[in-house]
Amino acid sequence: MRLLIARCQVDYAGRLSAHLPMATRLIMVKADGSVSVHADDRAYKPLNWMSAPCTLTVTPPSEPDEADATPITEVWEVHNGSGDTLQIAIGEVFHDSNHDLGIDPGLQKDGVEAHLQVLLAENPATFGDGWTLVRREHPTPIGPVDLLFRDRSGAYVAVEVKRRGEIDGVEQLARYLELMNADPLLAPVRGVFAAQLIKPQARTLAGTRGIDCVLVDYDALRGLDNVEDRLF
Hints:
- The chain has 4 helices and 12 strands.
- By secondary structure, it is α+β, with helices and mostly antiparallel strands.
- It has 2 domains: 2-98, Protein Yojf, Chain: A (Distorted Sandwich); 111-221, Trna Endonuclease, Chain: A, domain 1 (3-Layer(aba) Sandwich), CATH 3.40.1350.
- The strands form 2 sheets. A 7-stranded antiparallel beta sheet has the order 4-3-2-1-7-6-5, with no helix packed on it.
- β9 and β10 (156-165) form a beta hairpin.
């Protein structure tokens, strides 16, 4: 991973256009080729980014404008296969380092969450009649999505399983969906966020991403809570 802290100007062109004026930011280039630009706020969410697979080329700047307060030292152009372009004009550099993080073992689910995933894979009717399991741990370039189903109409549905549903889980599923929908053999793929408890903020964010939320009853799936035996 390369970490660059520098004054930079960022322009994105694709499905929409976006411009970030010259300011000091963190630029992160990961081993998979993805590039993201961060400010010193907004937690983990970048200001702009280009997901892998993409290519990065570095070129010298054009003729400098004497009126520019920050001289441009080089220009990064990041392209993906969809024709989108992320252009980063680099000015003064404050830090530039490379780090080998090695192979990440991935998220280790706790016992309840892992068992919940198994139970949902065995009981696709939890989500609707006519659903069938395609596979567990369906791979994507940034990690596996927990469950991949086909719904009653035959369309693919990616399901991310959590014990507690929070905003980061919704963002994780949204990233998976973006990559899966770029695959013509899968698209269109919709998402379902399944958890024993889903926080209101996560439910709201899921709605803006077009992701459905499903509350699951762990004890009922294990057969320890028979709905027909309940008084209310």
